[in-house]
């Protein structure tokens, strides 16, 4: 191995280059005296790496240094000295330091580019459906709630303004239902009084509407006669001045009768009758809605084709006006089929926007279903392998929130919910994405440095 | 992916049906490339030819180009724990599927006390939540430089690296970033972030250390400029951060930016923004509120952008009321809607059952089956689990829809010869199938016990009801 006697500093090298009229290197400042010592033709790259690192550290220098390196390579034969940078390392164990033979070409300035957002315009529009009627319209409600009217995906205000943000109804039952503890504690004082319950939902928890579920009419439960159940509807209409929704027990035989009676006592109030399904006498419910000026909830079990079929029946066979149908394509909880529910609703909404007039109705979600997920109510994981689940008081409401949030992004216009915190949080989300929230923070970068 | 039909792929393949790729025909291979279950380089003949023949080479290159995912796919981390992000093809999951779940990174910072850093890293590394037959886990750790001290940051980053999880290094200071990269560049961390101010230094770091880099700006022209500049300079692994503003108009604008970027990349074909997107739910901690409110809002931001297009996220909170819902949502949104989620029907012995142990009945819907199976195993219950073919439908829906029937149960009992394996004739059915109790007894001659509604409560139920009172 030949030992080179010559010591070579970068400063000298640049001087040499100057002699060769290399003008591009003018204006380059070198701080510190860099020395390279060569020990033979096979260069240990680790000896070069520190040099390289120092070069990198000189601000604004790299570009020129790179140019210098390539000049070095080209001029090496002219100068008659072996150049480290032209030599491939003979050793296989490359050092972890950057490979110097690679050239870093750093631009001086950002390349200007213009971002042009892709525009989307749909031919279809979701029907606008009004719930509730004020005195001017023959009812006794203080205000009405408008659902639907979208011409774009939910909260895509940049495509098209969204005329109505989603509304939230809180569930009320005509008999004390089985509820998760975290939910029940908020209604303990009103569980046996639906009118008071409804009042609490509106006054205390900010519900836009209330849903009174006439569960006790179920023949397997109290089997309350329709006429008697309808009295509860009247009481609720007295107690609150918001638009209301009336639900049956889910019993296919009894529900048409119950909802018919409810429609009758609520004549002119434009309530939502929940629900008509394919496997019951939907026509009877639709007829009651038409007769007394109400809206029908068209409920199917997570099947877009069934939804289309039922909607067509309601439109074509029962002659329901287009502005009097809302759909419930079924809600599954986060972790328990939410993917099915989300995709089903998203597909329904996209079909509506693309012009499918059998599916362009506002969508409703039974978001309270979120409390069926064990993660929302169980005090701890039943599985030993799981990281502990943490306090359920905090898990429950967020389960309802995330279930609702997800479905709102699929296009849901009406949420039926229960936990007050979940109601308040979803409202905040809708107002935020809807452009009605003026809250601000000073510096969105501050998290980079926060110490909590 | 640019191609829309397998024929376009097929035409560029050798078309010899040699089966080396593992598929019977080139056509079948082409179809699998299209649904992304196969990769072009699995066609060995083509790869080998391309080394010699320039014609084959150009075909291979063309194939790779037209089958590349719409959104660039990048890898963060090294070894087994490395995580892939991006690589998406569609805007709505039903159009195909989403491929790489949003990667979740959790926060530590270098001025945090050493013990706390360890605790947090440990928690992230060990976290698991059982879900549909497997455990959900967390992807990595984001280390923030709050000290502004390169050597401190370097040391902490090195320590965090020892947990073996992928990392995001967070500092706008190039000196600090460099110090960290000196320690862990070989672990391929994602560096965060190049901005309008520091981009040159960050570009150098990305090239020098060959690490993926986040470019960051809330001005989408600037963001694109950064991406274009980095790409031109030779950086391939780029992530876009359009800046997460956590409340009010700011959050609304963030929502718009994220959606516009992804939609313009996929529908508008703008390759300069076809990169993975970063969202930072940690920003929720900047709002003026109590801790729980901040945490809830962090989960909200996380949830919102799991649904809408974020590929990478940084979270601050390690509490389950933030981690569990966002993680579960991610699992749901990224489930492949094309594959039915069911398991084989039949008999599953749980924990080495004996003839006197109970016989349970459930459905073959994967979510139901795995929930029940793991409830039984982890509660150390010995028993025989009969899995009924309900065509992948859960208990309640299959009872209502007529797929869970007494005659089906009878067949299952006969096929599995369960009567020969136990010394009793008691069958425990799900609480939600209670209405079939009589029918199953009549059909099978077994005595049917109605179990609890939720299989998580079988243990308590058994204590009262097993062995059955004669
Ligand atoms: C997702 C879903 C669907 C999906 C099913 C997806 C699937 N692969 O299963 C689809 C869209 C296909 C569907 C269809 C239908 N559905 Co559906 N569906 C649901 C939904 C939203 C969630 C169900 C779920 O996934 N649960 C999670 C799983 C894990 O629960 P699980 O199987 O019951 O298991 C638990 C327990 O049963 C128990 N357990 C299980 N095994 C065992 C064993 C033992 C020994 C014990 C002790 C316990 C036990 O522990 C498990 C864990 O908690 C529910 C509503 C809800 N509850 O939120 C409605 C629901 C179940 N469906 C319902 C109906 C009516 C139907 C249809 C009949 C609708 C129709 N008319 O077409 C069809 C039937 C389909 C068919 N062909 O059989 C009704 C049932 C009403 C009733 N009680 O009679 C429900 C309750 C909705 C409602 N409120 O009306 N549905
Ligand atoms: S390996 Fe290539 S040539 Fe052989 S069958 Fe597969 S696709 Fe065709």
3D architecture notes:
- The complex is a heterodimer of chains A (452) and B (470).
- Chain A has 2 domains: 10-24 and 34-79, no CATH class; 128-438, TIM Barrel.
- Chain A is 35% helix and 12% strand.
- Chain A contains 13 helices and 12 strands.
- In chain A, the strands form 3 sheets. In chain A, strands 10-9-8-7-6-5-12-11 form an 8-stranded parallel beta sheet.
- In chain A, 46% of the residues are buried.
- By secondary structure, chain B is an alpha/beta fold.
- Chain B has 3 domains: 6-67, Orthogonal Bundle (3-methyladenine DNA Glycosylase II, Chain A, domain 3); 73-333, TIM Barrel, CATH 3.20.20.20; 346-465, Rossmann fold, CATH 3.40.50.
- Chain B is built from 17 helices and 17 strands.
- In chain B, the strands form 4 sheets. An 8-stranded parallel beta sheet of chain B has the order 10-9-8-7-6-3-12-11. In chain B, strands 13-15-14-16-17 form a 5-stranded mixed beta sheet, sandwiched between helices. In chain B, strands 1-2 form a two-stranded antiparallel sheet.
- The mean pLDDT of chain B is 95.
- The chains are: A alpha/beta (452), B alpha/beta (470).
- At the A-B interface, helix 10, helix 12 and helix 13 of A face strand 4, helix 8, helix 9, helix 10 and helix 11 of B.
- Cobalamin sits between chains B (360-363, 365, 367-368, 371-372, 392-398, 400-401, 403, 428-432, 451-452, 454-455, 458) and A (301-302, 330, 332-333, 336-337, 340, 369, 372, 374).
- Iron/sulfur cluster binds at residues 13-14, 16-21, 23, 26, 29, 43-46 of chain B.
